[in-house]
Amino acid sequence: MPEAAIHLASGKVRELYALDDERLLLVASDRISTFDVILPTEIPDKGRVLTGLSAFWFARTQDIVPNHLLALRNDGRSLECRRLEMLPVEIVVRGYLSGSGWNDYSRTGFVCGHELPTGLRESDRLPEPIVTPATKAQSGHDENIDGRTAADLVGPELWTRVESVALALYRYAAVHSEERGIILADTKFELGIDRDGALVLGDEALTPDSSRFWPAAEYAPGGPQPSYDKQYVRDYCLSLGWDKTYPGPEVPADVVAGTRARYVEAFELLTGLAFDDYLADPQVVLR
Q1: What DSSP assignment string belongs to 166-191?
Q2: Are 49 and 35 in contact (CB under 8 A)?
């Protein structure tokens, strides 16, 4: 780490540093969390998968919306980024009915203000993708809100632009993923405003930590789907009867290996690159 870098914050996965007044360094660790608890066992190369995939998508969506990426460092886990004023909402786009969206629909028939057709099953494809914002909780879980509330938080005109950009990003990524045998069920974007007032995509993008990626060949609506994310670790932790409070349980070697394999498989399918090639030369994802 450069001596000039000043540590600003630690997230569940990332470390954030200031390089200067205009640049930040985002370093993705191999930490993994379940139910908002960081587990004591790391998943080797998980941070490199997240960083490599984010850089891959940033390089391919610049014509939809500018992003904060300035450089991908050769450690494969660090991104130099420009500073943004981040919007106070997370923007989730859902193409399928799963997770908290399914829970809300089961109770009310609505998801974040969107009235959906009756009779949908868990994991069903929606007639059209929907934008479902959430507040950013400082602790605990984020809270789903509707578009009107989001518009009140960021301003109606800006929210209209945010919705349009988020839907365009989702549609692009969903088509790309489906062509490679993966369903992009939903994903979370974080957007901010740069010093010139432009809307910019920040944070990470379209990774297994911010998205539900499902193997298309195994898709069977009517219940939860197998996925390329930390569900494998989550299921293991639940099998122990863990109460979802700190400290989390240690994860055995076979579960670590299975989880790493899922992350790497998602990387290779989505990018069309061998993960070992990325480790040897991270810049391949930008070409």
Answers
A1: HHHHHHHHHHHHHTTTEEEEEEEEEE
A2: no
